[in-house]
């Protein structure tokens, strides 16, 4: 930079100074004159030559060097006679700085696209957020269902649900009671083995109206077993419950093996029946009878295949063999924790884990692996 008066550049020896009246930069040679400055409270300061001439001339005449222009009196009276119309309010719109930065360097078409995008964003902000009932109505209309029913379902979900105050013992009793009730209902249903026996009897042409006698006997035995189990529920210990679970698993495995043997016998019997019937029927009726026999046999085989698939799924899910290892370190398990969903632990992992999580109240029984 250079001096505003002599145009000499500022340096270490020619330092920059400001005029307190006009604010321009001057060197020390051009800023030598002193005078009083009215805007600084008539304090005496060094000013430039132009400011010094203006301030000294004002002090001599008692008024500013340039006289203020005053409009004529008729003009002022005319302005006073005019009405003062109310001006519309001034509205200030604050624009998004990010959107303004996007417009930098864009052509007119791109600027219009940016403005449209900004308007869409403002419209979305002004729209109220839909309530859960409105969203449920829209969903019902899209699915083609009754909106009133969907709104009622949403209202039902907002009902107060009391906290669960049952103890662990009461929950266990309720689960056992529910299990016995489900078992009682299942015992009233016809057995799959009996249904297959009835189908075989129909294929043989035997009378199935009386029903298999074994079903009634099984129901009576199941009902009596349930009654006895309910009566001795309070007196059962933890070991008895575990033995009951193991015995139930063995019975289910035995039933599955029986079903597989029955399926094999059914296939052999159907093949033998087909050969026997084909030998008894005359040759002119053999073609039509063979078709009927094949349809009947195929239908029975399809039903057996469906039941086999269901049994395999249940066997995979329910009859999975238990691995006698600790669930933490894979060592040989020695303890079964009843309150941890019958998980298996070694002695060190059980003690360390239950002490760390403050689960010393959990019940446990010794575990011996099956041979």
From TrEMBL:
Origin superkingdom: Eukaryota
Domain FYVE-type: 1-56
Keywords, comma-separated and alphabetical: Metal-binding, Zinc, Zinc-finger
Record Gene3D superfamilies: Zinc/RING finger domain, C3HC4 (zinc finger)
GO biological process, one term: mitotic cytokinesis checkpoint signaling
Keyword Zinc: yes
Name of the molecule in the record: FYVE-type domain-containing protein
Native species: Cryptotermes secundus
Classification lineage: Eukaryota, Metazoa, Ecdysozoa, Arthropoda, Hexapoda
């Amino acid at each position: 930079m250079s001096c505003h008066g002599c145009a000499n550049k500022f340096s270490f020896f020619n330092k920059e100074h400001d005029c307190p009246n006009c604010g321009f930069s001057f060197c020390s040679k051009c800023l030598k004159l002193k005078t009083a400055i009215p805007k600084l409270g008539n304090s005496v300061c060094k000013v430039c030559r132009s400011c010094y001439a203006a301030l000294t001339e004002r002090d001599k005449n008692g008024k500013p060097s340039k006289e203020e222009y005053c409009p004529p009196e008729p003009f002022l009276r005319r302005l006073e006679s005019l009405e003062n119309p109310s001006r519309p309010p001034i509205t200030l719109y604050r624009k998004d700085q990010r959107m303004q930065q996007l417009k930098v360097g864009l052509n007119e078409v791109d600027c219009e696209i940016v403005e449209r995008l900004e308007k869409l964003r403002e419209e979305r902000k002004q729209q109220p957020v839909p309530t859960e009932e409105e969203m449920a109505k829209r969903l019902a209309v899209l699915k083609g269902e009754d909106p009133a029913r969907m709104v009622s379902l949403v209202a039902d979900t907002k009902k107060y649900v009391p906290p669960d105050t049952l103890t662990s013992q009461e929950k266990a009793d309720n689960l056992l009671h529910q299990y016995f009730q489900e078992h009682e209902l299942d015992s009233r249903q016809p057995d799959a083995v009996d249904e297959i026996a009835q189908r075989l009897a129909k294929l043989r042409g035997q009378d199935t109206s009386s029903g298999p006698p074994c079903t009634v006997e099984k129901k009576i035995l199941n009902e009596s077993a349930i009654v006895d189990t309910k009566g001795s529920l309070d007196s059962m210990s933890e070991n008895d419950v575990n033995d009951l679970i193991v015995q139930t698993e063995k019975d289910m495995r035995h039933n599955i093996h029986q079903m597989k043997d029955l399926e094999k016998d059914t296939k052999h019997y159907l093949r033998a029946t087909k050969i026997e019937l084909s030998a008894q029927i005359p040759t002119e009726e053999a073609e039509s009878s063979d078709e009927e026999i094949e349809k009947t046999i195929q239908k029975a085989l399809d039903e057996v295949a469906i039941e086999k698939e269901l049994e395999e799924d249940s066997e995979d899910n329910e009859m999975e063999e238990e691995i006698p290892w600790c669930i933490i370190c894979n060592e040989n398990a020695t303890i079964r924790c009843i309150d941890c969903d019958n998980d298996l632990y070694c002695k060190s992992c059980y003690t360390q884990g239950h002490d760390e999580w403050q689960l010393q109240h959990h019940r446990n029984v010794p575990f011996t692996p099956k041979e």
